[in-house]
Amino acid sequence: TVEVSGVPFFDHKGVRKVILVFYDITQMKRSEKSLKDFVANASHQLRTPLTSIKGYSETLLDNPPANPEGGRQFLEIILKNADHMDKVISSMLALARSEQVGEAFALSPVSGRESMGRAVADVTPWAAERSIALRSRTPEDEMFVMAEADGLLHVFHNLLNNAVKYSPEGGVITLSAEDDGESIVFCVEDQGPGISREHSFKVFERFYRVDENTIDGAGSSGLGLAICRRIVRNFEGEIWHDGYGEDTRGARFCFRLNKPAMDRPVNV
Ligand code: ADP
């Protein structure tokens, strides 16, 4: 899209001329549209639980239930919806932070092993509640990657949380890391319902959820993977879903990050 503005003037011979300035506003229009989409999606995401909070609060006020148990059930629904709004807002803030334009990312060597270990320790109690086992398949060597420690941990947390969320009771989640010389590829694989090919790119889009209708207890905003993708890209890496292997039943998310230059093989 091009916008034009003109400035008329007379040259030294008195001839009338016009200077035309062309502005390429394609990018601007695109970001305007994406901002509009974002606001529309965000409002929708927040309005749904808010409507429920308002509805149940009004019912409690207008028709107080005779027995305390009835009131408790309503309050639990209100709390669940408030928790969901809390999660959506935190995710939106995390996304905004990771999308700050012009922000310089100070990448430095970060231990992938340590980050994975911390994330596993954090989700283990939650996984244990449903007898879900977490297994790691990693090389013996230290695995340093160019990243920022908090961002890397955020990506592991997000992928592991999703894996637990979608795993069946008693399922196994496998974490792996593979050194391919230039970079390290980390994967998180579960035995849940998986993601079909038609959805496998879209799940990285903001607010995209395969099943729109589920607002489960753990909260679902459709922002988690968009944040992971932004963070991994900020680290000059890539992230994808490839749960279509011979023996893969569930979802398998992988991301690749560069190794520090000193750890890469020297080509002679
Ligand atoms: P959220 O989990 O908050 O909805 P995400 O961006 O993390 O948001 O995920 C987007 C969608 O991708 C989810 O709503 C779900 O449909 C699908 N998804 C993500 N991880 C998995 C997984 N491990 N197994 C099956 N589906 C998944």
From TrEMBL:
Signal peptide: none annotated. Residues 41-261 form the Histidine kinase domain. It is found in: Membrane. This is histidine kinase. It comes from Pseudodesulfovibrio alkaliphilus. The chain holds residues 337 to 604 of 604 of the full protein.
